[in-house]
TrEMBL record:
GO molecular function: oxidoreductase activity
Keywords: Oxidoreductase
SUPFAM superfamilies (alphabetical): FAD/NAD(P)-binding domain
UniProt KW Oxidoreductase keyword: yes
EC number, as in UniProt: 1.-.-.-
Every FAD dependent oxidoreductase domain range: 42-395
Keyword Oxidoreductase part of the UniProt annotation: yes
Protein's name in the database: NAD(P)/FAD-dependent oxidoreductase
Pfam families named in the record: DAO
Amino acid sequence: MTQTDRHDDLTPVPRRQGLSYYQATARAAPGAPSLRGAARADICIVGGGLTGISTALHLAERGTDCVVLEGSALGEGASGRNGGQVGTGLNWSQERLEAKLGAGWAAALWRLTEDAKAMIRDRVARHGIACDLRHGVAHLAHRRRLVDEYRRTAGQLQDRYGYADIRFVDAAEAAAISGSAAYFGGTLDMGAMHLHPLNLLLGLAEAAVAAGARLHAQTPAVAVERVAGGGFAVTVPDGQVRADRLVVACNGYRGRFLPEIGGRILPIDNFILTTAPLPPDLVPPVLPAGHAVADSRYAVNYFRRTADNRLLFGGGENAGGPQPQDLKRFVGQRMWPVFPQLRDLAIDHAWAGTLAITASRLPEFGRTADGIYYAHGYSGHGLALSLLAGRLLAEAAGGDGAAGGGAGDWTDWDRLARLEHLPFPGGERFRRPLLALALAWFRLLDRL
């Protein structure tokens, strides 16, 4: 957005999403009335998902006046629709990060991702958020040839990073952890977690309101313009917010915000179901120790048990084309080969959510020339990274995250903002059809 630009019609076109299990079991949401009339704030945050709410909470705790604008209900997007897994690290292995960025930068990113997990534990404990948090996530190989890579990853994290929470598991233990004969080994990470993401978000939103943040749901930003003399004017259907600084926290629901980065992130749909409660006599038992699982497929299958003993199973991706008409059957066809013992068990909920990926699969943090701060493109690691992004956005937009000189002077914001991001092949116009072809190829590889 240049000094003279005004951007209108920013609300993304809604996608069919369906009622999620999380919505059916959510705690009460805090008060977030739609905005009517004029408002003034130091910082306006567009997006009421985990990134936006975490940013607001950190800002309010430091005494900064902030307003959050959410076009739908709080957590209606992927923040309240995801698989609920809090993973370790980034999409790239530490070995790959070291080779690309050097040992120092890679180690700093490792520390940040560990801080992200610690932040979730701290926030849940500090604010008494009941979100069914449990530890233990297994990453399992669906092909025998991938097992040695998992063994190497566990060894590197133990030896080079002192991470004692991960260990290698063989095929027998993979079967015991999952309750499925579909896997050949992998890792068990007891430092990773899984939880009810919508209840986490609503608990954080309640804490943000208590700290002084102003939250407005059902208030889409329909236009943004730079104001002469500094600051921004954000127009909503029944009013306007004037703010000194602007944070865009929309991720896969970006719509027309930040067109200059449009070719670098891509919204994709992911699909999840929950079964009826698992019968007690199920043989073999599914996830008997209560760990979550993510597998090695290109289009990942992931699953965990809910607090009321259902199987939550996610899988399948869509790069913007027509969604499956029967989501229960679509996801069930991925679940039944893994758990044939569940073929006759009813499926009670099935839904979609829209996440955002980058071409590199590393998150993108940045600031436009006009001073708009953003963080997005978590590429499947958003549950942990979005809370961390809230802290870093609050520091950067609040004036504490200015870039240092050399790498030794970098802030935590710099370490993520300086990651290189290239556009998707085909740019904004052709990225979707090209990715759709790539996803079709990956699905074929998974089958082969």
